[in-house]
Design brief:
The protein has one domain: Ribokinase (UDP-N-acetylmuramoyl-L-alanine:D-glutamate ligase), CATH 3.40.1190. The chain contains eleven helices and 13 strands. α5 links the parallel β8 and β9. α7 crosses α8. The structure holds alpha-D-ribofuranose. InterPro entries: Carboh/pur_kinase_PfkB_CS, PfkB_dom, Ribo/fructo_kinase, Ribokinase, Ribokinase-like.
Length: about 300
């Protein structure tokens, strides 16, 4: 398989990003260093990451009937993403994320708006697309019952369902049972399973009971195989400008390369994520296929 057909079911946000010398304390006012507006949303970010790498991507989600929504749709279309199944909801604002970038990290508050206006029926209306996809990719910035509806359709049509459980929340057992691969960080996996945050990562992966691909920032990734053995894939060293969307880039790229096997897919997805943090904004640094290959060639 050269270019898998990917369907992303998830959120679309406008990111309002403030640069700051450090994160403020509660009740404190700080003078920021920059302000920018970027395209974002975990779903849209993952869709763009996959599309930039040259694969066919369709997105299922919702925007509001407002300027932000029209801008987001036009942007996704310009990235070559099929937006036919994105609903425009008349009575909801487009999702937005208030992001502070400081100290080499970020804080994000999402106001979901239209992202929480989609329903399981909307997902079920997209059954034909799910049935013809090679990978279904979702996250938790849309209602849980919509994620579950997508997972059920993926199972019905024997399609891999990759779930990036972010932002973290406890997963219903039924959903966990339908997941082909879970792609959390350590904190998200603990919350997904309802376990203490300080549970060792090896124990978390064992307790999950499903295949897990854990992202660990600069430490790379950790994943289990069908025999329960753990494998690591190191990250690539770059100088980060903005880490927002690094996980999304990893997920979108992984979906594109999944058919190459875990080792190669995680190597390429790590490289895409590394490139993504070298520019400001969630999507600005996401590489094209040529940029990714050029980066990898330099690492050899
Ligand atoms: O993962 C990064 C994304 O989280 C941002 O683009 C923001 O919109 C939030 O959804």
């Amino acid at each position: 398989m050269q270019t898998p057909k990917i369907t992303v079911i998830g959120s679309i946000n406008i990111d309002l990003v403030t640069g700051s010398p450090r994160f403020p304390q509660p009740g404190e006012t700080l003078l920021g260093t920059s302000f920018d507006r970027f395209m974002g949303g975990k779903g849209a970010n993952q869709a763009v990451a996959a599309a930039r790498l040259g694969t066919e991507v369709c997105m299922i989600g919702a925007v509001g009937d407002d300027g932000f929504g029209r801008e987001a749709l036009a942007h996704l279309q310009a990235e070559g993403i099929n937006t036919d199944r994105i609903k425009t909801l008349p009575d909801q604002p487009t999702g937005m994320a208030n992001i502070t970038v400081a100290e080499g990290d970020n804080h994000i508050i999402v106001v979901s708006g239209a992202n929480f206006g989609i329903t399981p029926a909307d997902i079920e209306a997209c059954e034909a697309r799910i049935a013809e996809s090679d990978v279904i990719l979702s996250q938790l910035e849309i209602p849980m019952d919509c994620v579950l509806a997508a997972a059920k359709l993926a199972r019905k049509h024997n399609k891999p369902f990759v779930l990036n459980p972010a932002p973290a929340q406890k997963l219903p057992a039924e959903l966990l049972g339908l997941v082909t691969l879970l792609t959390p960080n350590a904190y998200e996996l603990a919350i997904s399973l309802g376990l203490p945050e300080n549970t060792p990562v090896e124990e978390l992966i064992k307790q999950a009971g499903v295949p897990v691909l854990m992202t660990r920032g600069s430490e790379g990734v950790l994943y289990n195989d069908e025999n329960g053995n753990l494998h690591t894939q190191p990250s690539f060293k770059v100088t980060p400008v903005d880490t927002t969307g690094a996980g999304d880039t990893f997920n979108g790229a992984f979906a594109v390369f999944r058919h190459l096997g875990m080792k190669e897919a995680t190597r390429k997805a790590n490289a895409a994520a590394a490139l993504s943090v070298t520019k400001a904004g969630a999507q600005s640094g996401m590489p094209t296929a040529a940029e990714l290959e050029a980066f990898l060639a330099k690492q050899a």
